[in-house]
User: What shape does this take?
Amino acid sequence: SDMASLELNDIYKHMGTGKAQYLYWCLSGLISYTEYVELTMLSLVILPLRCERGLTAKFETLLVVVIMCCFGVFALFAGKIADKFGRRQVFIYSAIGMIGAALASAVVSNKWVFLALRALVGGFVGVNMVVASCYAVEFAQSS
Assistant: This one.
């Protein structure tokens, strides 16, 4: 069949099974999950953050805007970065960066550092959402 017209289920069938495919699917699941977590995190944990870190309504709005802007801006450049360095490397390094920034944001006490780290998480999620789908198609074509 024509690879350009494959649906996601067709890609799953073509990829087969093995260590590399399991690693890919684990990372892909993590990336997809973190996108939803990032989008819902603020609504679920914003109240404890208000008390714990003294966030104001203005800062909460700024946090959401910055995260979503980084998500979009990083996603715009993800394709060019992946073309230059390789989808697999960008996918893995971006996943590592996202996990590192998320863990670091959980332990910082300064709200501006927290904002910067959450912006990085949003950016890495944007990169991985673009690169993961391209990488899945490449996996299907090579198997």
